[in-house]
Amino acid sequence: MKTNKYFSKVSGALIGLSVITYGFTGSELTTKTLPPLTDELQGTISISGAFALYPLAVKWGEEFKKLYPNVKFDISAGGAGKGIADALGGMVDLGAVSRDIYPEEIKKGAYPVAVTKDAVVPTVNSANPNIKEILAKGLKKDAFSNIYASGIYKNWKQAGFSVSVPLHVYTRSDASGAGETWAKYFGKKQEDLLGIGVYGDPGLLAAVKKDVTGIGYNNIAYAYDSKTKKQLAGISVLPIDINGNGKIDADENFYGTLDELVKAIGAGKYPSPPARDLYFVSKNKPQRKEVTEFLKWVLTDGQKMVGEAGYISLPQEKLSNELKKL
User: How many whole angstroms separate alpha carbon 270 and alpha carbon 273?
Assistant: First the structure.
């Protein structure tokens, strides 16, 4: 059982005293003395960008606000492209970005801090007439390229399945880390992707759910239910035939639950890309204390929420290196 920490504001003369927190680890009572709060953080932290990082950013904001009630958050999702543009344009404190940061963005002052990891997964309608075969065989990397890049496959039978039905392709219409990362898996860029453009992760998921023969891709936070850990009703995650032998072997079959997939990504079993790091990006090194303290907290205590929310923790060494940037 994880130790829960409860914090209370201390007023007047008591503000300088240490606070004792109590929690249970197994059957043992543990205590920890917190440093005194000499100056209360306050102000608004604005964040915009990647749909991939949005759910966790909201959770982090809620938990950080419990520690510092005078800090407010303004968090919105609009795609990684909007996040980096808003950050570089000074519109927000932090841009949420779900792809690699480009060299030209670094030259413009982008200051990235990696905070967690997740992945993009291909998705299909669970009522597809080929669904049993799709889940048993999966698709190879070159097959995804033939669907999304060259457009050679226009029918599910051409892709290697028994029932001949049209293959309807959906992609992101907004500048997204998911689109960029998915394209990078088979050596392309987001602008190379074919298909009907749909805005945002929720929109792309909805399009595939409505189209029996549709195919799309989503960040894992949108393909699985965060509470039940199961795939969302109406869609199925399309397995990747990583070793290219025409079937999904036991060690490739880790899509049943969110926990299984997260474990596989953490162990390096799922390809990277489409697994990738997620970033908070500021314009130059952040200076406002509430922003730097929030980022430090995200890289330390905030990591406790990563697994619970369906994301993957970065290696401790990498977290330490990111912390040094602040």
Answer: 8
264: pLDDT strictly greater than 90: yes
Radius of gyration of the chain (CA): 22
The DSSP symbol for 43 reads: E
Place of tokens 């051409």: 158
β-pairing verdict for 94-97 and 275-283 = antiparallel
Nearest alpha carbon to residue 150 among 181, 123, 187, 120: 187
DSSP 100-160: PPPHHHHHTTEEEEEEEEEEEEEEEETT-TTHHHHHHH-B-HHHHHHHHTS----BTTTTT
Lowest mean pLDDT among 128-132, 195-199, 312-316: 312-316
Domain annotation for the chain: domains and CATH numbers = 43-117+277-324 (3.40.190.10), 119-266 (3.40.190.10)
3-state secondary structure (DSSP) of residue 29: strand
Strands (E), the chain: 19-25, 28-34, 43-49, 71-77, 94-97, 110-125, 168-172, 196-198, 214-219, 235-237, 275-283
Give the span between the Cα atoms of 90 and 101, in whole angstroms: 17
* Chain mean pLDDT for the chain: 89
User: Which residue in 162, 167, 169 sits closest to 137, CA to CA?
Assistant: 162
How far is Cα of residue 188 from the mean position of the Cα atoms in its chain? 21
Handedness of CA 288, 292, 297, 303 (dihedral sign): positive
Predicted structure pTM score: 0.83
Instruction: Give the torsion sign (CA, 54, 206, 151, 140).
Output: positive
- Residues 87-126: tens digit of each pLDDT: 999 999 999 999 999 999 999 999 999 999 999 999 999 9
Are 221 and 53 spatial neighbours (Cβ–Cβ below 8 Å)?
A: no
Q: Are 194 and 105 in contact (CB under 8 A)?
A: no
pLDDT score, position 137: 98
